[in-house]
Specification:
The chain is an alpha/beta fold. The N terminus and C terminus are likely disordered.
Length: about 650
């Protein structure tokens, strides 16, 4: 792989460069090269691991005076006459069939990087040996290892740019490189990292966890999820070298923040504050940070370096005419992709910078200036209160809660307090409304709450109405989806991704409701002798994993709705998953009278008093007689509110 050259050489910078600025530039270039090299090494390692998993290589680890050597032998699944390029081709075909199993493809286009006879960039970092049984065997093993490494996927543009931004912060900050290292060597430092580029927080934390920023993997505890019962929760990562508590702007929860910051400060772990907006993180932690890294934003030098790291060379034209402030890390991944040319990548970035929204305006509703500025809301699909939008990645429809602070204007807004038809479900929701503020204050653990529910009943009995009422009463956003929406992509890998993204979106906006309609469509697991059994079994297992993952669904209330609960896999209905199960039956006379009273208010008594008969509605026939006296306009209004069973105009 050709080494990444700097975006500009010192000569290009001009002969007037001072000695200090040249040293700063050289240090920045050295740190940037190191970060990009680590990205490439990780890709090469994944490619070799894939070859071992496929049986094309066999790995043996040998202890040599305290140093572990990796020795690779030809695998049993490898044909005797296969060359290195043939191994890459076979591995590429196999990985295409398994692409849904990993978010990190392992093979790219080897021609973009190094020739087979060039030494691997990983050789100096990991002592790697090959079998030396004979000269022919050694040559063949070397060819295979080198060819697989050379064909490893190129680094992702967003990850390269993120690391270059970090390198920029280290060299341009108020701390010298030695001071930065001294702070990081301390037992419990507080470090604040700020970057003005969107998606930096997510990318930075991911790279940190994978060991591409610090020397070793990092297991992280979200400071905003600290509670009094389980103070610190770190995901189980056996290879992790570091444990840190982090506060990210994207996760900020003002309720209980002061207490959680205090808990983190009293703990034995380093604290990391990472932000894209300084106002979105605890000011006390930023003020106390021993190390503050300001990464700034994207610029021509970083984008040039990113293009070269991914595509192998820089564009010939200057990029100074691009408004980099309108670009984010996702835009770089859109424009700078394997197979593109440096010039086409630069041209795409110009288009994205000129139209940051990335989608045509709505002909029926022109965009206001506030909508243009609110890039987060427009991209996620969420709008202002009461509006809806669809996220085209997960398929979920986002419903914002309606304002119920004004009792008069909110009289006809669906709420749990006025929901009639299923007292059991109503009591469950009212109990949740009491527990949710306690959880937000840190006085109650999420596992101690009942946050999952299955509603069943015939069509038109109010299952969706219940979910909307819950959304308004709790004043949290609701993500509505269905099994049919999840199955739209058809291919198993894409369907599984859509299911996981639906949960991830709800977690990102916690507290939130995830309403899954037609959940019986997930079916049940069956014997593998049945057609397509592996497909449906995988979907059920995926949903079971997400419903069981307490840490991953913290803050998400899951409500499933079905007309046919009997066909759902029994494992989904066990406690802790879609439990309790509550049936909403067609409302009886008393429930329908309560619904009518809610919508008609005091007019109900007047209508009953003026009705020819009966004056008291004590039976089903009495109610039908009363409904028969109502004007058609009233009945249509009731039907429009989703109360078809009430608005049926029967014959007395």
């Amino acid at each position: 792989m050709t080494a990444t050259r700097a975006a500009h050489s010192p000569v290009e910078k001009g002969s007037g460069m001072t000695a200090t600025s040249q040293r700063t530039y050289e240090m920045n270039d050295r740190i940037a090269r190191h970060f990009v090299w680590r990205l490439r090494r990780e890709a090469e390692r994944r490619a070799v691991e894939a070859a071992v998993e496929a049986g094309f290589l066999r790995e043996e680890c040998v202890d040599n005076s305290g140093r572990v050597l990796q020795i690779f032998h030809r695998g049993a699944a490898l044909p005797d006459t296969a060359s290195g390029r043939q191994v890459v081709a076979m591995l590429a075909r196999q990985r295409r069939r398994l692409i849904g199993e990993s978010s990190h493809p392992v093979l790219g286009n080897g021609d973009l990087f190094i020739a087979e006879d060039e030494p691997s960039s990983s050789a100096s970092a990991t002592r790697t040996a090959v079998e030396h049984t004979s000269r022919d065997a050694a040559a063949s093993a070397t060819e295979i290892v080198r060819a697989v490494r050379a064909a490893a996927e190129p680094p992702r543009a967003s990850e390269v740019a993120c690391l270059l931004l970090v390198a920029q912060a280290v060299t341009n900050g108020e701390h010298a490189e030695r001071q930065v290292l001294d702070v990081l060597r301390r037992q419990q430092p507080i470090v604040a990292v700020h970057c003005e580029t969107r998606h930096f927080e997510t990318c930075f934390l991911d790279l940190l966890g994978r060991g591409l920023i610090l020397p070793g993997e990092v297991t992280r505890c979200n400071g905003y999820e600290l509670d009094r019962r389980r103070n610190f929760y770190f995901p189980n990562m056996p290879a992790a070298k570091w444990q840190i508590v982090y506060f990210a702007g994207k996760d900020r929860d003002m309720d209980g923040e002061e207490w959680r910051v205090g808990q983190a400060a009293q703990g034995p772990y380093p604290i990391l504050v990472v932000s894209e907006c300084e106002r979105q993180v605890p000011a006390r932690l930023v003020a106390a940070a021993q190390l503050k890294l300001d990464c700034g934003g994207l610029n021509a030098e970083i984008v040039n370096g990113t293009i070269e790291a991914v595509l192998g060379e820089q564009p010939t034209e200057e990029l100074d005419d691009i408004d980099f402030g309108k670009l984010d890390l996702a835009d770089l991944s859109i424009a700078i992709r394997p197979g593109a040319t440096p010039s086409s990548a630069a041209a795409t970035l110009r288009i994205l910078a000129a139209d940051p929204e990335g989608e045509p305006p709505d002909d029926d509703e022109p965009k206001s200036s506030s909508q243009k500025d609110s890039r987060t809301d427009s991209r996620s699909g969420s709008g202002s209160s009461g509006r809806r939008g669809k996220d085209h990645v997960s398929g979920s429809e986002i419903v914002q809660s309606k304002d119920i602070s004004d009792a008069d204007s909110g009289r006809f807004i669906e709420r749990i307090e006025t929901f009639s038809g299923c007292d059991e479900a109503r009591e469950w929701a009212l109990s949740l409304a009491v527990d949710l503020p306690l959880w937000q204050a840190g006085d109650l653990h999420w596992d101690e709450m009942s946050t999952k529910l299955l509603l069943s009943g015939p069509p038109g009995t109010g299952k969706t109405l219940f979910a909307r009422s819950l959304c308004n009463s709790l004043q949290v956003p609701m993500f509505t989806t269905s099994i049919a929406t999840w199955l739209e992509p058809a291919y198993l890998g894409d369907v599984v991704k859509r299911i996981k993204r639906a949960f991830s979106e709800a977690v990102a906006h916690h507290p939130a409701i995830l309403f899954i309609d037609e959940i019986d469509g997930i079916g049940r697991r069956t014997d593998f002798t049945r057609d397509y059994a592996d497909y449906w079994n995988a979907l059920v297992n995926c949903l079971l994993e997400l419903l069981d993952g307490a840490a991953r669904t913290t803050g998400v209330i899951v409500v499933g709705a079905t007309n046919h609960p009997a066909i759902i896999d029994p494992a989904l209905l066990r406690p802790g998953r879609l439990s309790p199960h509550m049936r909403i039956s067609p409302p009886d006379v008393a429930a329908r009278m309560e619904i009518l009273r809610h919508h008609l208010g005091g007019d109900l008594d007047t209508i009953i008093a003026t009705a020819p008969k009966p004056t008291a509605l004590a039976s089903e026939d009495d109610l039908r007689s009363f409904l028969h006296t109502l004007p058609d306009a009233v009945l249509r209004d009731l039907a429009g509110k989703g109360m078809e069973n009430i608005a049926w105009k029967g014959t007395p």
